[in-house]
Design goal:
The chain has four helices and six strands, in the order E-H-E-E-E-E-E-H-H-H. By secondary structure, the protein is an alpha+beta fold.
């Protein structure tokens, strides 16, 4: 799976921007809280499918939390997901999450009644991994986030070095021009 949310080809985690913490009217009607999120274009092509996986977010005390989830990809860049582990909730102030789709559960059923949807989601949850593998999965996720953070720091440092080199080149050029005007030899030649 290609991933524009993190590093292409090296990560299974996709950055998703929270667009609505209230979910859809149908999900609210059956009492299941969901979030509507947006993923970058061409990240995954799962439009029309319900997918099992995991979601990661920062809690209010800034610790990373993970939960198994079901995701309904209603468009190429938009999905609705529900948390499937009891006691987990995403704070309303959360603006981004990271999703890790695992496997397709089924196609999205159009025109489904509220009661049928509730039963279907219960069946869908049987397709989740048996255990919330939070220890190793969260550790792997944090490792990916640290790699991304270090890569960003290195790229920033490279930019600063390049800018400094360009400034130094301009300064050397200006010094050479001034030396030529004054008729003195190059300072760099005298110091050799």
């Amino acid at each position: 799976m290609t991933n524009n949310g993190t590093e292409p080809g090296h990560s299974q985690y996709v950055r998703a921007v929270v667009r609505d913490n209230g979910g859809t009217a149908l999900m609210r009607k059956i009492g299941i809280p969901t979030l509507l999120v947006e993923v970058p274009p061409t990240v995954v092509d799962l439009k029309g499918y319900v997918v099992a996986g995991q979601v990661f977010w920062k809690s209010e005390d800034t610790k990373w939390v993970t939960s198994r989830c079901l995701m309904a990809f209603k468009a190429s860049t938009a999905l609705e997901f529900m948390l499937c582990d009891p006691g987990r909730h995403i704070p309303e102030t959360t603006m981004e999450v990271f999703i890790a789709p695992s496997h397709v559960v089924r196609s999205i059923r159009q025109g489904i009644t509220a009661s049928d949807l509730k039963l279907q989601l219960e069946k869908d949850q049987l397709q989740l991994p048996f255990l919330l593998n939070s220890g190793p999965v969260l550790k792997n996720f944090l490792g990916e986030m640290q790699k991304k953070d270090w890569k960003s720091k290195v790229e920033s440092l490279e930019k600063m070095i390049l800018m400094q080199k360009q400034e130094n080149d301009k300064l050397i050029s200006r010094i050479t021009q001034l030396e030529d005007k004054l008729g003195v030899g190059s300072i760099t030649e005298k110091t050799k």
